[in-house]
Amino acid sequence: MEGKKLKYVKDLVCISCGEKYEPLPTQYLCPKCGEKGILDVEYDYEKIKTDWNKQDLKANPDPSIWRYLPLLPIEPTTPKPTLRVGGTPLYKSKVMAKLLGIETLYLKDDGLNPTGSLKDRASAIAVVKAQEAGMNIVSCASTGNAASSLAGNIASMGNEMKAVIFVPSRAPIGKVTQLLIFGALVLSVKGSYEETFYLSQEAINKRGWYNRNAAINPYLVEGKKTSSIEIAEQLNWEMVDWLVYSVGDGCTIAGAWKGVYDLKQIGFIDKLPKLLGVQSEGCAPITEAFKKGTDLIPVPENTIADSIAVGKPRNYMKAIKAIKESNGDMINVSDQEILDMMKTLGKNTGIFGEPAGVAGIAGIKKAVENGIIKSSESVAVVITGNGLKDIKNAEKAVGAPLTLRPDLKELSQLLNDYNF
Amino acid sequence: MEGKKLKYVKDLVCISCGEKYEPLPTQYLCPKCGEKGILDVEYDYEKIKTDWNKQDLKANPDPSIWRYLPLLPIEPTTPKPTLRVGGTPLYKSKVMAKLLGIETLYLKDDGLNPTGSLKDRASAIAVVKAQEAGMNIVSCASTGNAASSLAGNIASMGNEMKAVIFVPSRAPIGKVTQLLIFGALVLSVKGSYEETFYLSQEAINKRGWYNRNAAINPYLVEGKKTSSIEIAEQLNWEMVDWLVYSVGDGCTIAGAWKGVYDLKQIGFIDKLPKLLGVQSEGCAPITEAFKKGTDLIPVPENTIADSIAVGKPRNYMKAIKAIKESNGDMINVSDQEILDMMKTLGKNTGIFGEPAGVAGIAGIKKAVENGIIKSSESVAVVITGNGLKDIKNAEKAVGAPLTLRPDLKELSQLLNDYNF
To answer: Helix, strand, coil: what percent of chain B each, to 5?
Structure first.
């Protein structure tokens, strides 16, 4: 199906040199610019406006990302993974707003996606694009949510496709287990993440597998953008002042911007939000480049927030461009602030986020303290991954339970001691 | 608010002696019959039929369990936990149907509830009933999904209520962690589960806390019944021939029956399904009592499926009554069959269930082989809990990944060896 016309997509545009390319499923990077030649999907907004409006959307009972089909770079008839990706809840939390020092806060729990993270939104698109490229094997190098979401979405095709996942051998067995449950071919590489990544690239090229390495594949950001589109729809198209995301590779926040940008172009929203990107102090190369206006300098990965621990992010240009266009900002949080926020969020909302999943909320607190976000401004933040994925770090966030013998008197004493 | 009139509830009826009681929030058991005096909520179906129909329901945009309000034993105005409980996806799976030897199979992934299990449906009701009883502390003895769902739903009330959870000290730290993240007061009891349970009962009575021990509280089954009501609605009120659930305490399958029974009474469905209850061979006291027609004999708990490892189930009478009324059956599966099914399900659907969560599906396979379910019959099964809750057992289900050095030649050799 390579080269089949996409109804609403005009071109792929290189964000470095501006060169345009035909939107083929395997047109990953701008050949002229190499790794910096990240491509962006350009839509024909006029055509979309003619064919699609808010009423059509409201009448669509499908809660998944496929309800936004005119804004997705796929052929409508390509078989889709059957998992219900997207449609995650958006909660308004007065208690958390108060704790963060703002008036209005919305929390989107993307940990309730089928495999437990926002990355399902990107992997679902990868599964569709692979088929449009005539390929049934999709591959990536990852130990985390990109891998598990790819493995799960591939599995939902019912044995018609296969995921090949490259992991560095240091990857925790718990994360590898989810991949194996989904029937992925998991290749454990005795080497660093960089070595693992380059082996995957070589194999993908040589074997003709479809590439689900996010920064390289322009279509994956288009899946990720559905998180901000959903927020807009859930807020009845009244956009908040700030959209907040944790930042690793840069793809997710770039996708969030693309989502609201698209909505503005087709007239679904009037106002664009400012973006706040939050990195972990132990691995913040994008914040560094953003603040200093310099090129990106790779750094070590010293943070518990493994889903955003990307020392050499490949999509920093798109991320920085998005945040700047939005008049937004970036901020870093410490591991301790992340651990504290896991507990604060859990206790006040019943949402259990993984470390990278709550880094954004920890960033709001700091941004309010620093005067970046005003207390009168409204904020929405996405919890990007489920805490059940990383119980080990959650253990660090909480204390131990109270211990006692099975004795009512001892219990009474204990409860009195704790003023309960 | 104790004793406030519930619009559509007539009475609580003892399933042992038939005595009727006023539906007070703290009317747990029939005082005459003690532990066997499980109560059942009786509705005024005529009144419901007058006030509510399928069109009303269809027009309701709320995807959560609260869309079924006329069939829930709560006051409409009591504040509800804010987590989006229910509205989990129902997937039709041709591949799994074929593997199980049947024509039509639906899989409901209740692991996508906010805290990762079907038990959110019961805990949400407990949080509402506690408030109607004027209590802000809710307690239970559990290491598993009952506890985490209670802790999460309580937390979502934003610090207005508190969960007190009794766990035996052998409880794995991973499960305790989720409770602590949700801010529950966790009391680790140096004793057996029985000792822990009785200490919780004593404390609940003495302290005036609300009781969320499921078999004792008649309202919790009413929350659980929403899983089968949702299936019915998702199937556009065309009920399948068989509804399949794994069985531990007996409450969940009893709830499933109550759900379809209610729907039949108000004319939303015409046909009632047969129920298949599935226990684990290592802990199957209800199957034993069901098959032999004897009273229940407690047994040890020797199974990896810890969410259904209940040696002394407290709601077996309601479960057996439901299965008999449905002309259904019971069957046991081994731990190995459960582990195999975790892998088969994951690989063919992208759904990752915990051991108890997939026991039902393993039971379908066996029931088809034994001629209990005919290949022409349609089946729906609920995956009751998320596999991320129990990574340790999942590790047992899967093998190890393939290992290699970061070398393309070695990779090619390896892929050839595996005929890939």
So the answer is: 45, 20, 40
